[in-house]
Structures are given as C-alpha cells and as structure tokens.
Write the structure tokens for this entry.
Amino acid sequence: MSVAPRRRSILLATAAVAAAATAPAVAAPAGDRHPHRPSGPLVIGHRGAAGWRPEHTADAYTYAVRAGADWIEPDLVPTKDHVLVVRHENEIGGTTDVAGRPEFADRRTTKTVDGKAVTGWFTEDFTLRELRTLRTVERLPLVRNRNTVFDGRGRVLTFQEVVDLARRLSRESGRRIAVFPETKHPTYFRSIGLPLEEQLIRVIRRNRLTARDCVVQS
C-alpha cells in the first residue's frame, strides 16, 4: 500500500476535472472520504495488499481495507468483448494459470505494446467468459513466496465487481472506501479498436460515481 497526503489528493482532484475528457476515473468526494480521520493521510491499497495476497484479487482488496486502506486501486484492461477487467497489464501469463491451460496454448503470441515486444497471453484475445475460467496466481513468486499459497483461489475481476466490492467493504468497515482506477496502455488499446475511456465512463455513470472532485489516473 502507499500513502499520499490529503493536500496532494485535492490537487489531483482539481487536475482531474480539467483532464476528465481524456482520462476519466472516479473516487469518493473529498468531504466524504475520512469521516473518522478528517486530517489523516490518504492510504491507497495499490493493487490491493499485494504484499500479502496475489494482486488485484478480491482477497487483496479486502485485506487492504481491513488493514486501513481508504481507497483501492484497480488497473484496467479490456477483454476481447470489450469488458474492463482488473490486471496490472494485459499480458496475463504471470498473473493467471493460463500457461498451464492446454485449451489456450494457441493464444500465446508476441505483440508490440507501447513500443515494447511482449510475448504471452493477452486479455484482448480472450472473452470475459474465457477469462472467468482462469485462476489467479502470485506475479512475483520468488519475491513474495508466501503469497503462492493463495494461487488458484481467485479469479479475474471486472471493474464493476471491484466497485461492488468497495461498496460492500464500505458497509462492513463503516468507512467510505473509494475506487481509484488506472487505465493501462490506453493508446495501444485505442489503436486496436478497444478504447478504454468509453467503457470506463459507462461504468462510472451506471454507478453514479460522477462527483466533480473525482481523481483521475491514467
């Protein structure tokens, strides 16, 4: 998890209003973020609590909130059928068990993503239904070996599911838990006909997460 001063969060929110047309995202209104700690720091669960659970899983986000996080941060990439899912990058060979799935062996390929050649399996080549069959694993097993005991327990979440999870964690914790999404490789995805922004706006509007002082991250 990372910590950012409240003043910085307000400055980011101000910049977000100016940038909303190109990279919209959302967080809780500034006056409603810390009802119990109005002058405290802002604690962000970056990819959840990735040091204790495999990143971007429901377990990681839940652990982060129970450890005191105010916001949870999901990275967003699209599926083949244009649903936003939560992964740090679109290549999922290191964060799911796809490499051990013979039915998807022919999906392994090499692509140039933002000027860098990457080999593996990519979210944009899978429908959401196909991704649902995969299980999550620890991305850095040599560094975070203790997290490997949770391999196979989680699944790839959609952005909507993270919003729903934040609402449930808000009720359970008695605090307003905000969602701090980040769009990954937006230029690349627009170039292949899977722009992130429109889908992001759709989820934001559907959930009425449209406060003027939202925070944008891209």
